[in-house]
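Homework help board

Subject: predicted structure for assignment chain

Our instructor gave us this sequence and asked us to write out the predicted structure in token form, then describe one feature. I got the tokens but I'm not sure how to describe them. Can anyone check?
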Amino acid sequence: MIIPAIDLIDGQTVRLYQGSYDQTTHYTQTPFELRDRYAAAGAGVLHLVDLSGAKDASKRQTALLRELMQQSPLPVQVGGGVRSEADLVTLLEAGASRVVIGSLAIRQSALVQQWLKQYGGERIVLALDVSINERGEKTLPSHGWIEASGITLEQVLDGMLDAGARHVLCTDISRDGTLQGPNVGLYQELAAKYPSIAWQASGGVGHLDHIRSLRAQDGQPSPVAGVILGRALLEGKFSIEEAIACWQNG
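My token output:
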């Protein structure tokens, strides 16, 4: 599945480079224009990120997200700054099909495990974004990649699986915003180790061959259930229609 992403700061469509707020690109397309464009093309799910709320809870863009989701012609998964059960409930009630939880899954794993049991694995996407060190360890920075946690993906994920986790969005931070290609080997490794998870790949897709690299190969299933696309679509590297056709037909 192709999952187009819209990242938002103060109501504007933006992209960050490798998670840095100091390297923000602003785009002229409004989130409403993009949402409708992606829906008309046949995207299966829309991915919204409240970057203002992720950085500062007082700047959460709840009203905008609600308007985008309640009028959306396609399902929406949304994240950015979910810090409490009240935030989770607010987004679900605002129209989210799934809520994406990142930093809290790292810092308060037991709490998020409780939510998975209460609300179900189909309502929550875990955003476990990795920084791979020289020893090959997949550590998980938190707070929008601003703070190093020292915690590994495996440490967090094992408990989440027991609680019913089903969807995980995984970004190799070193690839994010670069258009240099996804870390295919990472997703193959994760899919083999955790086959019950529907993995969403994010980071690095810059042309259609990168999408092809994540499809089923030589009789082997795709390691991912979906591919998040952001900058490549915004900058016209290919169209949403081309991306969907590539994913479906090669």
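Reply (TA_rk): Your tokens look well-formed. For the description, you could write something like this. The chain has a mean pLDDT of 91. That's the kind of observation they're looking for.
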